[in-house]
Amino acid sequence: MKFCVIGLGQFGSSLACELSRLQHDVLAIDNRDAPVASIKKKVSVAAVADAADIDALREVGVHEVDAVAICIGERFEASLMATSHMQEFGIEKIYCRVVNDVHDRLVSLLDVTEKVRPEAEAARQFAKRLGIEHAKQRFNLTGDFVVLEVEVPKKLIGTRLADARLREDHKLNLVTIRCNGDEDKEEDKNDEERDESDARGICGVPDPEQRFESGDYLVVFGRKKDVEAFTDSD
């Protein structure tokens, strides 16, 4: 799938890099030279263009993409004009970042696929993580079930998976293990190197003979209350 990301601030740049990492074709656009130069080796095409100028957008090929994410921050006018241009191009999937209530209301007047408020979403996810000690990542499922990445409890360090009795004693299923704190060790590397390191840190389908080590993170599936009880079991 071919995406265009317009606006290469922190959110837009991260989104463009992640889409590219997932093997999508990404056209990344900003009206500033520096962010375009910094991302050009990480995406299919990076171009300097004014999002408010429909001819400039057409010239770099925006009209040929499948979906557009408009990630412009405080420049309401440019964000709204870019959205209007996408509709004129006939692009069906338009995702628009909004930064406050006024921006939200203005974008609501346009026909967009989805409004995105990353700061608010990050705050919600962080608040949920704060509700469970040692939680790192959380994915809500139907009902009260969650998939959660949690630090291995101290009492299980050195224990074989076969002896941990996660299902019997804690009513949890182990999905996989992120081994021995790889993310912390790689914090100084760039995004591309960190992605490769993270892939090495995931153990795949855990072996019953594998022993939990300090710094491991367990990806578990179960009810929220059972995960809470498990992380409080130190």
TL;DR of this structure?
The protein is of the alpha/beta class and 234 residues long. It is built from 11 helices and 10 strands.
Largest β-sheet summary: 6 strands, parallel
Radius of gyration: 22 Å
Low-confidence stretches: 181-200
Topology, number of strands: 10
Tally of contiguous helical segments: 11
Which sequence of SSEs, written as H and E, runs from N to C?
EHEHEHEHEHEHEEHHEHHEH
Give the strand content: 15-25%
- Mean model confidence by pLDDT: 81
User: Which structural class best describes the helix and strand composition?
Assistant: alpha/beta
What is the spatial order of strands in the main beta sheet? 3-2-1-4-5-6
Distance between the amino and carboxyl termini: 45 Å
* Overall morphology: elongated
Helical amount among residues, as a percent range?
25-40%
What attributes does this structure have?
six-stranded parallel sheet, 10 strands, alpha/beta, 11 helices, 234 residues
Characterise this structure.
It is elongated, with a radius of gyration of 22 Å. By secondary structure, the chain is an alpha/beta fold. Mean pLDDT is 81; it is low at 181-200. The protein has helices at 10-21, 33-39, 54-59, 76-89, 101-108, 118-130, 161-164, 166-170, 182-185, 191-201, 224-231; strands spanning 2-6, 25-30, 45-48, 67-70, 93-97, 114-116, 135-140, 145-151, 173-178, 217-223. 39% of the residues lie in helices and 23% in strands. The strands form 2 sheets. Strands 3-2-1-4-5-6 form a 6-stranded parallel beta sheet, with helices on both faces. A 4-stranded antiparallel beta sheet has the order 7-8-10-9. Helix 5 (101-108) links the parallel strand 5 and strand 6 (114-116). The chain contains 11 helices and 10 strands.
